[in-house]
Specification:
Two copies of one chain form a homodimer.
Chain A (H helix, E strand, L loop, with lengths): L2 H6 L3 E6 L5 H12 L3 E2 L1 H11 L3 H6 L8 H7 L15 H19 L2 E4 L3 H4 L7 E6 L2 H11 L4 H23 L11 E4 H22 L5
Parallel strand pairs in A: 1-3, 1-4, 2-3, 4-5
GO molecular function (chains A, B): kinase activity
Keywords (chains A, B): Kinase, Transferase
Protein name (chains A, B): Cytidylate kinase-like family protein
Chain lengths: 217, 217
């Protein structure tokens, strides 16, 4: 493959994030800057349509963890990719697998940025995917949530801790890995010290460096 | 404070790293690029001289963990900064505290890059310090170690796992935190996908962004 061909290849970026760190806004701004599609809730819609499960169910079951997916997978002869055949599987597991497949399809189709949904795990074997995690200290996140969600300080703090606990539980139960663990990401950025635009710039630089890098360490 | 004054302020960067990830080389190259001093083993020398403990002891006790530092600290009326008065403290704890103080002094004196030595913890209250962690997947690190340390593949793998275990144990016992945990770092980079020069560039960009950033997320 020539260098030109590598530059022309897809840019696939997954973003995990602590609640209130601005991860979603960073993904959105990055998608505008790079002119590639962004998926968050939209991804649910695609997965819902493709799997034939109603969109409404996707909304109400959004990121609800389950502990029985690994059991379900081990008993499913079709493996990941055959969720539509899993008639005995609990609904939230079907939803997860439908999203899981949607992420993989999107990444095959072309460049994209995907926020949340264990996308780093779905794309763990993708040769070019860049897995990013955005975090910030609790104080900075609380300040942001007070502004963006119109919450009091105690409400913002409670929300931040509660939603991160939910995200960790969802991620850990489906992937068998630990949410926010360094080894799952190519790049992690504390948005509290460089801001939203700073984080966008760092991810952009990283993606360009990765696309042109072919050596070893 | 004017923007100019902020740009003129010190650049203090700490680098933690998995063995074989190129973290030390990244720190060294970054120090050349930014024209600011680099400390690794040199730091031991300074700490040794300032504490009056012989340099030889520093070398042999380098990064040997202890589980009794917190006890020692709790019984020391002088706290961190009074290690020379701690006649009853185990030698490795004295060494750690001497290094700990040396890191703090260096960061007060001016710009610097410090690799290892729990420097991120020593500077956790420093208003401008940038804490970086460099990692890469085991396969990439083993390849690098085979080349740089002239090891066979099994030797390189054994070394990588053994030394990281030692580093984690040293860091965890002295800081009460978990080595390589995302929350301790402002930036983590997988050097395996962007290379040494790529990682240097990302840290450089991040430092410039942080120096000029004054807002909230």
């Amino acid at each position: 493959m020539t260098k030109g061909a590598i530059f022309m290849s897809n840019t696939v970026i997954t973003i995990g994030r602590q609640f209130g760190s601005g991860g979603r806004e960073i993904g959105k701004k990055l998608s505008e800057k790079l002119e590639i599609p962004f998926y968050d809730k939209e991804l649910l819609t695609i997965a819902a349509k493709e799997s034939g499960i109603s969109e409404e169910l996707f909304e109400t079951n959004d990121e609800k963890p389950t502990s029985s997916l690994l059991y379900s997978l081990s008993t499913n002869p079709y493996g990941v990719g055959g969720y539509s055949a899993m008639t005995d599987m609990p609904l939230n597991n079907k939803l997860f697998l439908a999203q899981f497949e949607a992420v993989q399809k999107l990444a095959q189709q072309g460049s994209c940025i995907i926020v949340g949904r264990c996308a780093d795990y779905a794309l763990r074997n993708h040769p070019q995917a860049i897995n990013v995690f955005i975090h910030a200290d609790l104080e900075a996140r609380v300040k942001r949530l007070m502004r963006t969600e119109k919450l009091t300080e105690p409400q913002a703090k409670e929300q931040a801790l509660k939603i991160d606990k939910k995200r960790a539980s969802y991620y850990n139960s489906y992937t068998g890995k630990k949410w926010g663990n360094i080894d799952s990401y190519h790049l992690t950025v504390d948005s509290g010290v460089v801001g939203i635009d700073g984080a966008v710039k760092i991810i952009e630089d990283f993606a360009a460096l990765r696309a042109s890098y072919q050596g070893a360490i």
